Amino acid sequence: MKTELINQAYAVARERYAEWGVDTEQVLRQLQDFHLSMHCWQADDVAGFEVQAGAMSGGIQSTGNYPGKARNIDELRSDVLMAQSLIPGEHRLNLHEIYGDFQGKVVDRDEVDASYFQSWMEWAREHNTKLDFNSSSFSHPKSGSLSLANPDEGIRHFWIEHTRRCREIANAMGEAQNDPCIMNLWVHDGCKDVSVNHALYRNLLKQSLDEIFATPQPMMKDCIEGKVFGIGLESFTVGSHDFYTAYAAANDKILTIDTGHYHPTESPADKVSAVLPFVKELMLHVSRPVRWDSDHVTIMDDPTQELFSEIVRAQALDRVHYGLDFFDGSINRIGAYVIGSRAAQKCMCRALLEPQSLLARHELAGEGYKLLALLEELKAMPWQAVYDEFCLRNDVPVGSDFLTEIERYEQTVTSKRG
Ligand code: RNT
Ligand code: ZN
């Protein structure tokens, strides 16, 4: 796209927003400071690099068989860098434990340590990126339907040991990058069919978490993620939203909101102002549920827009960590990263461009029709010109120009993979 045209469109947008008291230059600065935590698992359909890797389990599923998924650590790193080169701004990389650099060695989940992530830390430093982390309870012979809530003490302690070690790894990453590593804890624990031991499982999960969190790890931050149900675990989820919301509030932990994890008519955006008086920070897993927790690629849909708008309206920008969590195996995976990441940024861009104090004033003055009218007008304001300018200033392709780059990478790299 022609630079001149983008600049002209931006100049018009800048004036239009200024009429509403919104400074687009300020918004561009805020966008520059908006860092996504890009999930590594879109590149390979959540397979990871364990030598002993088996089938995917734990109630999650990546569907589709688009050619070219990353088969090893080098391919995944290359794909992530390719995606990042098409996304404006600087972003973090979110690793799961199963993505360690195991060098052909069988390393069980209760044996992992920071040495297997040394090369990741070096890679991150070299590429000026920061790492976040996740323990991995799924896709393992001991996963079953219960891990940290398992009444079998041997299995439960296996997963406690795993998660403890993951916190040490996260802490090492935090130290290496001189910035806390955000570690997410999600376990799939639940029941396929009716169960009468709900209280037992939840007490066990609480006990496990207490043991895991007993050791302070100053350079990492813990977040905990609940959900409604998993595949094959439809009847009961131990780590439900109520469970983790209460745990996070009582134990000063970060609550993770995965936008795919709620009942279809429930609004994840509405959680923001509801829990922020009680928890210091939130972690997002921005995703897109289609009828269930399908983890489709994030787009600019109403729920995503509402979520970012609620964060801005709550003045909570610096209390939120912005993770992505989708894994679509049916389309070009670099494309998936770029579309999803840019969609999240565009939603944030629109959220930041809202004339907040003006809107709030109308509402408090009882001028409901004015509030409604302005919100309607805002939908058609030239936010796209601001985002285009953002891309331009970050030296990444503007608009759909990134398609050519992805196509070239597909032709020369991903299509060559067996
Ligand atoms: C599963 C959770 C979890 C996973 C990743 C792979 O329902 O959303 O965050 O998607 O950890
Ligand atoms: Zn998630």
Characterization of the model:
With 418 residues, this protein is of the alpha/beta class. Helices cover 43% and strands 12% of the residues. It contains 14 helices and twelve strands. The strands form three sheets. Strands 1-2-3-4-6-8-9-12 form an eight-stranded parallel beta barrel, surrounded by four helices. Helix 5 (153-177) runs parallel beside helix 6. The longest helix is centred in the middle third of the chain and has 25 residues, at 153-177. The chain is globular. The chain starts with a helix and ends in a 6-residue tail after the last helix. The model has no long low-confidence stretch (mean pLDDT 98).
| C-alpha termini separation | 35 Å
Strand content: 5-15%
Low-confidence stretches: none
Listed once per kind, the bound small molecules are:
L-rhamnitol, zinc ion
- Tally of helical runs: 14
By DSSP, the count of extended strands is 12
3D shape: globular
Task: Please state the average pLDDT score.
Answer: 98
- What share of residues is helical? 40-55%
Radius of gyration over C-alpha positions, nearest whole angstrom: 22 Å
What is the ordering of alpha helices and beta strands?
HHEHEHEHEEHEEHEHEEEHEHHHHH
Q: Helix/strand-derived class? A: alpha/beta
Strand order of the largest sheet: 1-2-3-4-6-8-9-12
Largest sheet: 8 strands, parallel, barrel
Short description:
43% of the residues lie in helices and 12% in strands.
List keywords for this structure.
418 residues; alpha/beta; eight-stranded parallel β-barrel; two-stranded antiparallel ribbon; 14 helices; globular; binds L-rhamnitol; binds zinc ion
